[in-house]
Specification:
Layout (H helix, E strand, L loop, with lengths): L16 E4 L6 H10 L4 E5 L14 H8 L9 E5 L11 H20 L4 E4 L2 E2 L5 H18 L6 E5 L7 E2 L3 H10 L6 E6 H6 L7 H14 L5 E6 L1 E2 L10 E2 L8 H9 L8 E3 L8 H19 L6
Parallel strand pairs: 1-2, 1-12, 2-3, 3-4, 4-6, 6-8, 8-9, 9-12
Antiparallel strand pairs: 5-7, 10-11
The chain binds zinc ion (2 copies).
Amino acid sequence: MAPQRSAPLNKTVHPLLGAHVSTAGGMDKAITRAREIGANAMQIFVKNNMQWFAPAPLGESDIRAFHEHSERGEIHSVFGHSGYMINLAAANPEFLEKSRRALAEELLRADQLRLPFLVLHPGAHLGAGVEAGLEKVVESLDAVASLIPQVSAKVALETTAGQGTCLGCEFEQLAFILNHVREPERLCVCIDTAHLFASGYDIATEAGAKAVFARFDRIVGLKHLAALHLNDSKTALGSRVDRHEHIGQGKIGIEAFRYVMNAPRLRKIPKVLETPKGIEMAGDVENLALLRSIIQQSRQGKIPRV
Ligand SMILES: [Zn+2]
Ligand SMILES: [Zn+2]
């Protein structure tokens, strides 16, 4: 049966702006939390992110509670983030097999919740080298795709900070994966601003941000961009250390976000925070207010072009 929607999903309001929200107490509770902070976009984990597998499949009632939540229609973009145990470049055969099975399970859950994609950190090569690692990721993505041919939720490869041996910190690495999997149409990309900066892409000025996104477009293609994680960075440019900070209070600063919030080609891309939440999500409320305020300022002045 079709749920009653207070706002039809086809009347999408831009910007699509929100945060990663907790599903504690049930998948549907995430919608309540997202609305509490005034979000119309949200990211969720589809199961406990620190465990390999969910203790049980999603039940019919959980799925229905999610789809029929009275405010579901207010959230115009909902997508998932995969668990942290998954490493598609793992050398250990047991971990590799578990990683592939875990991702397949999560994509299935994403499909049940009708999420268009699941954000994934490509993997860590653990000393095998970047090239060998990327080849393993490609093999793994092909293996996962063949485990779940019927699933339509895509994998959104996320740009990473390049911490340790993590893959995905250079646009060329994401392009390699996109260009080598059997079914590239099952992939898309998520850009995290803190990760970009930590991995050495200087987005701190408007000119810098513009150049970095132009480079992304050349190497990966903006047409593949499905989501943005908006985080400032506690760590310096090129530090390769992943520590998120409140918007405008980190080493990146507000100009990068002014660019991202106003660039016409990024306008329809859902944008979610992964910044410290504080008490009762006050951190999210403040960061979202700040992001909205810089859109208004730009409308009165110049609007940068990608
Ligand atoms: Zn992220
Ligand atoms: Zn991060």
